[in-house]
Amino acid sequence: MSIKTRSKYSQDLGWLHSILDQKGFIKDLSPLYDSIEKCKKAPYGKDFLWGHEMYKLNFGPIQSLKKIRPKGYKNLQLLLSVKCIGLCSDEPQHDNVTELRFDLNVSGEDKNRQKVITAWHLDCHIINEEDGDPEHCHPLYHFQQGGDTILDVYESDEYNFGTALFLESPRLTYPPMDIVLGINFVLSQFYGNHWKEVLKEPKYNSLIRESQQRLWKPYFSKIQSYFDSPHMHEPAKLLMPDLFN
Amino acid sequence: MSCKYIYIDDEDKDLVQPYIDSVQKAENLVIERLELDEFSKLISKIIKADSDGILIDWKLDEKAIEGWQFKAAPVAQELRIKSSENINLAKPIILISTNEKLRETYSIEKSSHDLFDYLYLKSDVIERGEEIGQELIAFADSYKRLRDLTSTKTSFEKILGLKNEEQIDTRILASFSNGEDQLPVHEYAQFIIYDLLKVPGPLVKEETLASRLGVEMNDNWDDFKTKQFDFCKYTGPFESIFNRWWFKDVERWWEEKVESKKPLQLLKADERVSRINEKIGADLKAVNPISKGYSGQYWTVCQDLNLPLDPIDGFMIAARKSFPWQEERYISKKSAVERTFKNKGLSIHILEKERYLGFMEDE
Questions:
Q1: Which H or E run includes A217?
Q2: Rounded to two decimals, what is the model's pTM?
């Protein structure tokens, strides 16, 4: 069953690659291509897991954003890395993501050829019993600005951060994303014209729907269940700590 | 046993002799000059000569007598057709030319030159004759190996020297042969040379291997590379001409022996090297970037400077990609600013033109 699941997910990535390859608007699809073969293998050698792994997919220049500050930055490029591991399950309604790292960074050069960067990070918060309650609101899946990408390069001479300020809060509640949803997220948020174009492909739509069924349906069902019966708040609270009992 | 090539050129014997002498420095290589002739007679002469390979000048028509005006391409084409009918005639056809421009287009794509197995410039033949002579022998040996393997219907992965099918992306096998039809030997040779060995993809050259590990290519690297990566060195035809490694195996090595949590791509050169040194007990040095302020997360090499590069600090270049598993190639911003890439016949990819023009605006 697990081999079948991985092989199906790998095939889906192959479909996604071929649709995007045919469209030709993503700059360098090699990382997506590599992910197809990787997806056939059991992550960490554990047969009950599936994994989406893709590093630094370069979407190419962002041309449609109008309110970039400081002014004068042209041809920013966007890179997406996704590592999403989950349980192979016959029941897609089960929450099946066990590990998630999702990094999106946009970089370019200013007028003096000094490199600039901004980054967003979506992850799955790993809860250790001994850690106790986190000080701040910590949704299981959350987006935050910056993340390790910025921490890693902040001290180096590679980038110019000017007067930009980075904090770990807020951690914004967001459902988990695999490669398919991640690519769709980036296209929809940064490359609207390409997104509209690719949405015309029925196969693209069905790939998105399948991933949403797998990852988002259980997520939103848990939140929904809180509103249906507030005493069942624990699973929902994990996803959205703002929900009280 | 000696290896015999025939050499076809329209130049006078005296002018051609230095090239022949130069490559004949390689032990056991014999070059015989063949007089030009009318087309069909020339073809018969080539076949009769019973050589192990053919060296042919690109322009055969500069001094040709009327009626003999043809270039190397139709000769090669005719020989390829004949060899499809008779496997014993399948042998390397190597182009030799004085034309720098030919090398430029030739190095990036096969386009119209895919009748030939390789190109040598005459200036290089004089400079490094012995080495080129040895390569000619290797081309002939590889063709012999391919003739033997294909006539016994050996599987493509075995031809490539792979121990098991798992080592290779099955789509690569599928994109070449369905395993039933017997293809002519030169088609194997051309696919291996142009689509696997010359283009980065499942196989990478030494500079790319070192770049992805973040390592400076010094003496320690040489020892390290042999000890650690001989297991995944390419051992198929043309192996001694192209040093290549199966990169998927290197990635597996990284995960199993060095670091299972973080992939190479997301680490800077010094982080990669410190982990390798610690886990393997090596004494490698991290390689510095091309310019100050460039990312240390190298993944490719600048096609102009042949130095490690994170694609984010470069521009994608135009190159014909025949298959999706072939990777894009880049030049560094330094090469772009100094415009040195143009000397190598490289040009910016159409998807990068606008970004490139924006980048160059202030120059």
A1: helix A217-228
A2: 0.91
